[in-house]
Every structure is written in structure tokens, then in C-alpha cells.
Amino acid sequence: MSDLMRFDVDNGVGVLRFTQPARRNPYSLAFVDQFIAALDVAQRDDAVRAVVMTGGDYFSSGGDLVGFRSEIAKGARATYEMVDKVHSGARAAYGFNKPLIAAVNGVAYGAGMSLALCADVIVAAEDARFCQVFSKVGGCPDTGSSWLLQQRMGSGAARLLVLTGREISGKTAHQMRAVEECVPADETEAAAIAIATEMAANPMFGMHCSKRVMREAAECSFEEALDIECRAQTILLGAHDFPEAMNAFTEKRKPRFRDC
After folding, report:
1. pTM of the predicted model, to two decimals?
2. Residue 203: is it exposed, middle or buried by C-beta count within 10 angstroms (0-12/13-18/19+)?
3. Engineered SS bond to 102: which of 10, 119, 147, 245, CB 3.0-4.6 Å?
């Protein structure tokens, strides 16, 4: 697909591999462009039912600080536009409407950690290294991590990581509920693909709606969540796949889903 990443599809699961592990897959402006393009391809391809993103030995070392310096030197407007461009990668990942699983080995620093947090599920190697490094370099959280971390692990634990800039292992990240699965380093990608395959087997229209409901409900009150669920479930109950599942159950046969 490009010099920075490659996208392969097998059995309904797309694997988006970042291909600069020797440089620890820096989150550069070029990376953002290619990442958004890759997710767009996956979004439009009906053969892709779930996506795993991985950096191989290193997920991502975070923002390309050296590369960003030339934009920062142009002043506040150019800097703002650069940060907004960096954020567009997180928007694409968080807004992706198919299941997205991050398989994290090596480092996930700064924006690299934020990118992993945008996934629905994070599978981390036990010895992976996560760090909200921003405070160490005189910055503050970006790429959505100020919100994403608190959603996953609570405000106190999130502040601890942000304000100290402390590095934690994949095992500790799992204990702190920043990641969902923790496995030995040589099993990370396989474990992520197994989860993606499990999700990919489900009817896709229901999966799209379920993902949207979960995301929207996390940002609202209980009563608002009930309204969100009611609207989505009303649509699904009258679509093809849910009635087909009920008919198949009654007729004691395997359902014939059409993803609609």
C-alpha cells in the first residue's frame, strides 16, 4: 500500500501493518495521511469485516518531533493546523465503524499510545512499553489521550500517567485497565487476529450499530443511553438479520445473514 504501512486481508480480517519498525514507526504527518487512506480502503471494502493494526516489534514511538519542528517554526497558525492534522489520524481510528483491534508490541509512546487507545480492544505484549510522554517534553496530552485514557481507566489513574510521564509495561497497563488483553510478545498479533475473527463472524450491520451505541452511550447519561439503544435496536429489529436469526432459531437451522 505504501512505504509506511501495508494492508492485507484474510478470512474477513484486515491486518494493517506499520512497516518502519527500525524507526519504531513514528507518528509523522505522512504516517497520518497513509493511515487515514488505509482505513478508508478498509471502510469501503465489504470483504473487510474487522481490522487489526500492528507495528510488528514496535507499535509506534509517537509524534515525529523532529519532523514537526519545521511546522512549529512557522508560527501559531501552522502549528495549530499541524496538530489538527495529527488529530485527524485519531479521528479516523476512533470513528472507524468496523471492529478495530490494536496489537501492541514494543513501544506505544505519546500519539502512538493514543492511537492504540482509539481501538475497540487493545492486545498488548506483557513487555510492551506504554508512556504518556508529553509531560517529559514540556507538552500536554494530544491525539485524544486526555479523554481516551479517562474513559478506559478512570480519571485518577489517567492523571497519574499523564502528570508523571511514567512508562508502564503491558502487564501493568492490563492491571490498570488501559488494555483489554495481555499476552506473551510472540502471541500478540495472533491473539488480536483471533479476536477480530470472532467479531468478523457476526452480522455486520448489527456490529456497526453496536459499536456506535457503545461509543455514544459512553459519553452521555443513563437515560440518554436508553434513548440511543432504543433508536438503534428499533432499526435492527426490523432489518433482515435479526428476524432471520429468530426464524433460524425457530426452524433449528443456521441463520443466513446478509449484513443488513
Report:
1. 0.89
2. buried
3. 119
